[in-house]
Design brief:
about 400 residues, TIM Barrel, alpha/beta
């Protein structure tokens, strides 16, 4: 039986105050046609936190994402923190993470986030020409100035900030510029997210702003070299989340990042109305586990449907099973198995069985990227792992 340890929460659903070209979540508003504005009300918030605190273990992780979660306002999060205290058991700890575009961040937000030790993931793709390529405000205006202002406010107050940078067809050309930009501006924790999405104008085809596997592989290699070159006395001075997780696998441990684990399904996503889904990338009717108003989160986490979802990741083609890097990536995130670099087409992974399920046995779109990267970084990872006590 899986323990309830981590929950991803969408308090404002797919609503956002930006209009990023590559956003995959804005279309989820179609799941809730009865409402135009999506906000988690107090009854759902209270029920959700009560369940998590009562059913969860000693160490719990709340990930607040969107859409844009700050649309809820600080008062909502003050209530959330208070409810964890009311419903928590003696000895329980809660780690809160907030992923934000930064547009609404001000000194009052920074004070709150600092006081309650929130880890903030700030969506910042890099320097202005890179960030403003696809991360636009509604109406098509650039957002870089507002986001950089939010970064500085957060860092000046001492908030822990992680840069979240999407790697697109454009930004993939500038690995060194992006890395140095973040590092030189105080963002020593970085996460790079490969952009591979369906074309909103031509359903079934991969969007032109998506990164190619080969280009992404080269990008990772350059970022890796920069990361290693900044070591001091054998210790990293910057943190690249994906590299940190891979190092666990070289040390014979399970990677903290779910995309590098053997199976999926160790956490759930809770939407603004209490609907519970299998994964952030699969908020779809076929992977809806239930609603917190008529079921227990722990039961949904351990339901047959969630088990089925988790095991889907192990449906690997022979190409993967024979790969020397299998134990380091386990086929990557199933999201990227929906895309074919050979045909440029999208093949959604839906809740099916039998013959249709067998068709899902595909290597990840990013397979070539991973092979390029591991071929480049393998020996260094082995050396680093050998020094872990």
């Amino acid at each position: 039986m899986k323990n309830l340890e981590s929950v991803l929460i969408k308090p404002a659903g797919p609503d956002c105050n930006m209009a990023c070209t590559y956003c995959f979540y804005s279309s989820k508003s179609g799941l809730f046609p009865e409402t135009k504005i999506h906000r988690m009300d107090d009854s759902v918030l209270k029920r959700m936190i009560r369940q998590i605190m009562h059913q969860g273990g000693s160490n719990l992780s709340f990930g607040w994402q969107g859409g844009e979660p700050t649309l809820m306002g600080r008062e909502f999060f003050e209530k959330a923190v208070n409810y964890t205290r009311i419903y928590g058991r003696a000895g329980q700890t809660v780690a809160n993470g907030l992923q934000t575009n930064g547009i609404l961040i001000d000194k009052n937000w920074a004070e709150f986030l600092y006081e309650y030790k929130f880890l903030v993931g700030l969506s910042l793709d890099g320097p202005k020409h890179i960030h403003d390529r696809y991360r636009l405000l509604k109406g098509g205006k650039p957002s870089w100035g507002k986001v950089v202002r939010a970064r500085d406010i957060l860092l000046n107050r001492g908030v822990d900030v992680n840069a979240l940078s999407v790697v697109t067809d454009y930004s993939v050309r500038y690995p060194e510029e992006i890395y140095e930009f973040h590092k030189n501006n105080g963002l020593n924790y970085m996460q790079f997210i490969p952009c591979v999405e369906a074309d909103p104008l031509h359903p079934g085809r991969i969007a032109n702003f998506s990164v190619t596997p080969e280009d992404y592989g080269k990008f990772l290699c350059k970022i890796f070299d920069l990361w290693v070159s900044d070591f001091k006395k054998g210790t990293p001075t910057t943190s690249i989340r994906w590299f940190d997780s891979i190092l666990f696998t070289y040390a014979g441990m399970e990677a903290p990042e779910c995309t590098l684990q053997k199976e999926c399904g160790k956490y759930v996503v809770i939407e603004h109305n209490g609907d519970v889904y299998s994964c952030d990338f699969f908020v779809e009717p076929g992977w809806k586990l239930g609603n917190i108003t008529d079921g227990r989160i722990i039961d949904m986490l351990n339901s047959p449907l969630q088990k089925e979802f988790g095991l889907r990741k192990t449906d690997l083609p022979q190409e993967c099973l024979n790969c020397p890097w299998l134990k380091h990536c386990w086929g990557g995130c199933p999201k990227y198995r929906q895309y074919s670099p050979k045909t440029n087409l999208v093949h959604p992974i839906i809740n099916t069985s039998g013959t249709e399920r067998a068709q899902n046995k595909k290597a990840t779109y990013l397979c070539a990227a991973y092979k390029i990267f591991f071929g480049h970084a393998d020996s260094t990872f082995k050396k680093l792992a050998s020094k872990i006590p």
